[in-house]
Amino acid sequence: xxxxxxxxxxxxxxxxxxxxxxxxxxxxxxxxxxxxxxxxxxxxxxxxxxxxxxxxxxxxxxxxxxxxxxxxxxxxxxx
Length: 79
What we know:
Number of helices: 4
Strand content: under 5%
């Protein structure tokens, strides 16, 4: 669940289209290969930097909250 909410938080930051592009590029690069969460975060940060006004550090800041912390963080507000 926390991974899903991480992606939802990213979507709220960079938009659905940019997240979809990042996921598609990530998948194409890593199909039938091992990948780490760091690889996914880097792909999202790269897409955010090239197609949105969101700073890559804004994406990086979501990782400790959702992926490395214990418990359930506060859900992001719905637009």
